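Researcher: Predict the fold of Plasminogen activator inhibitor 1.
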Amino acid sequence: MLCVYIFLVLALSRVGLSSLQDKQTDFGLKVFYQLAQESTDKNVVLSPYGVASVLAMAQLGANGNTSKALTTAMGFSLQERGMLRQQWLLQRGLSTEEGVEIANGVMVERKMNLEKRYHRTLAKAFKTNPHQVDFTKPDQAISVINAWVSDHTAGLIPEFLQSGSLTDQTRLILLNALHFQGLWKIPFDPKLTQERMFHCANGSTVPVHMMRITNRFNYGEFVTADGVDYDVIEVPYEGDLLSMLLVSPFEPEVPLSTLSADLSSQKIRQWRTELRNVRRQLALPRFTLDSEVNLKTALVNMGLGDIFNPATADFTRITCKSTFLLNVHLSGVTVVPEVQQVIYQSESWRFDP
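Model: Structure tokens for Plasminogen activator inhibitor 1 follow.
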């Protein structure tokens, strides 16, 4: 088992924008830590931006104690003055990077009227307008949603939702899709790929195909608050604005949860400040990761249990006609072939009466 966290590292100059990005990253990392705790026997792939964005769309429709709970757990609120524009600037900044595509979608029951203010705030913050769907025909609605996800992930997630995952009671779906495809700045030579032993998290070893390269990388050695030594190496993509940070403990028996508990936007900034350009040999397993998780348990553990309770959840800023029950679902895949890397992820948040 190899638990992996993959993130995009971007340098955005605006102070307010950087602050929002840090808060969204911190929230996403807290969600990731919860998922990693629950998934000790499988890989986990997560987009902090995707989780934060789609939950922010739900936050825009929350009212009363539900709004307060979401703001407390997330560490920011798009309902505050000026935040809608900051969210739009952040999304635009990410989307303009070469190879990155981000899309947010809202699928709404065709006979349901959304609050005009909710409609406007979605457009301002996420540049998205609701798509009308006939949820009384669940299989047809699933086809529409799967087509949307496929279109925004270069066809790499053709069946995001399976038959039976929706009911005729579903009234609204919030979606986020992130797709990235880029070439490594320094490509791996396929001729150097060899089979070597890989140390799994459960203590076993398995033979895998290891890509190898010797070159200059940004590299650093660090220690957690609990005294665990680990190192970080940065592998850049073409253009140098995007990179993959690989983090691993020195000792193979150290659980990865020890490192994931220490993740934060501040920690990532520290890494990037203290990394030094040195010559290193990098051996990276050739891998494909599929990750599908239900976020409900993670969010409940973070104090958001009431948003899943129809007696306490208040999403009347979406529509005042019904009480909604929130369900969440996430699916993502990461592919790392010899010379390029692809990340794509999609999430959905379902509201049922």
